[in-house]
Amino acid sequence: MKKLVEQFIKQYDKAVTQVELIQKDIDKKRELIEGDKRDAKLARDCSTILTELVREQSNIKIGEIENIVNEGLKVVFSDNIEIKIISSILNNKTTYHIDITQNGVHGTQESFGGGVLAVISLCLRVVMIIYCKRDRILFLDESLGFVSEVYQPNLSNFISQLCKRLGFNITLISHQPKMVAYADRIYEAYKGKDGTEFRLTTSEKLD
Question: What's the pLDDT band for 33 if we cut at 50, 70, 90?
């Protein structure tokens, strides 16, 4: 499990390095365009180069995102479930579709059930928060409820590692005791005299 999580982290570090290198290239091309605006032809040529470079960056990001999500799926499910992000252009707008396979067999997103989609969504949210340099805070209100009980301990450990290794603060609301197996702090909701109240507890007491 630790090795798989380390692979996930390694893929993230690799993605960040590649994005930074490509961003430097984009900045150089942008400076070239801004430095000679009076020459319309040169500006158009550089704009074309910049467009291709941005497209190349997008492709690299997609590839790295695929690797990171697939590592997350491997940590949680231990099955050969993978995604492929397919891009298409319609009316000059780029759209993306997630293609999911298991042991090389393609299926619709719905055919893999809500558990797989929930983990994919979690991984994508983590990646986007990191790429966009936003506060590493996530609130998960029953969003992982479709994950099978068999895989819940793996998912709980995965979430714990995200917090410890990547500095995330994740608040998870769940009715599944196994989902909090690796939580740092657990609060149990119960009906008190003045309505819903909370008390600090342990995973053993929830079983």
Answer: low
